[in-house]
Amino acid sequence: MTKKARLFLGFVFIVNLISVKAFSQDGLSISIVDAAEKLNAQLVYEPLSKTVMLTKNNHSLQFRAEEKIMLVDYKTVVEIEPPQLIRGTVYVSSSLVRTATDIFTVKNPVGHYKIGAILIDPGHGGKDAGAIGKHTVNKKKVEYYEKDINLRTSQMLYDKLRAEYPDKFIKMTRTSDIYLSLEQRVEIADSIPLEDEEAILYISIHVNSAFDKKATGFEVWYLSQGYRRKLLDEDDVGDEEHLLPILNSMLEEEFTNESIMIAKFILDGMDAQVSGQSPNRGMKEEEWFVVRNANMPSVLVELGFISNKEEAQLLGDDKYLDKLATGIHNGLVSFITLFEKSVAPGGMAE
Ligand SMILES: [Zn+2]
């Protein structure tokens, strides 16, 4: 894939926390990291758009630094004291934390959506080998093909997800060594049947290659933009029409935020499986053709570098690929659980 994308700058909760005294009308405000901890909510911060998303009990709150509105559950607008951005950290007022507490206390009976299907896309195939690693191992010349590693890992991931979710529609774009154009992959994605309120997760599996033969590690790319869910119109906001542009730009962030969460969970899952064997290169942002037309939160996993001799040998070993597939599976399960846990009767929501 092309690397035109910016490097993702990192989440607030992994950025160093600077102690800053910030004051709001109702007293000392607190950083969103502390607020999320206090609320026991999941936090995602997208520094480029300064958008914060807090989720808990099937509720979602979205707001931005310096903006006086908060979007609740993707549809209701609440006026808030504008959060402040101080040295790269967003601070919110105590009243916002109280409002969030009230909203989170009552579990939202209907999930924002349910994951109805997961589409696994092994990159390349057939005449398109993807990256090729040529190395001399034990005095023998060995060739490693990205398309094969992608397919092996995808198949393992498919089996694990089928076992985990017998009721979900799990599909692979290819199950053998065939060539698929990008358009064909998009067509497969768009042809998956979905009920209302159901979404597809799209996960593409690739292997990296670099001129620098020392480069190693796995990384996850997430889709940056290009999605458009049903946007709000005047009926949704009454006489607050002037708020429409900002609200709609927050909604456009929605799938980005979800893709970021999936990416983070997958990275954590892989890290837990192969730390010590391969470094975690983190999260990257990209717009890809293959998912640009598909209406779904999407991530692309780069399993490792085929251009590095040691890592190529790992990627040629089914036991190692199984660890990676397990890590990806565990990450997806964490994400799906977070989004669906309070939907099921007797679910595990706090
Ligand atoms: Zn590739």
Key terms:
350 residues, alpha+beta, Copper Amine Oxidase, Chain A, domain 1, Aminopeptidase, 2 domains, six-stranded mixed sheet, five-stranded antiparallel sheet, 18 strands, 27% strand, elongated, disordered N terminus, binds zinc ion
Structural write-up:
It is a single chain. By secondary structure, the protein is of the alpha+beta class. The chain folds into two domains: 94 residues, Copper amine oxidase-like, N-terminal domain (Copper Amine Oxidase, Chain A, domain 1); 227 residues, Aminopeptidase, CATH 3.40.630. The protein is 33% helix and 27% strand. It is built from ten helices and 18 strands. A six-stranded mixed beta sheet has the order 14-11-15-18-16-17. 41% of the residues are buried. The N terminus and C terminus are likely disordered. It binds zinc ion. The site of zinc ion has 5 residues, from loops.
Please summarize what this structure is.
The chain is 33% helix and 27% strand. It has 350 residues and is of the alpha+beta class. Strands 14-11-15-18-16-17 form a 6-stranded mixed β-sheet. Strands 4-5-6-7-8 form a 5-stranded antiparallel β-sheet, with helices on both faces.
Topology of helices and strands:
Layout: E1 23-24, E2 27-28, E3 30-31, H1 32-39, E4 42-46, E5 51-56, E6 59-64, E7 69-72, E8 76-79, E9 84-86, E10 89-92, H2 94-105, E11 114-122, E12 132-137, E13 140-145, H3 146-164, E14 169-172, H4 182-191, E15 198-208, E16 218-223, H5 234-237, H6 244-252, H7 254-274, E17 280-286, H8 289-292, E18 298-305, H9 309-315, H10 318-340
Parallel strand pairs: 11-14, 11-15, 15-18, 16-17
Antiparallel strand pairs: 1-2, 3-10, 4-5, 5-6, 6-7, 7-8, 9-10, 12-13, 16-18
The structure holds zinc ion.
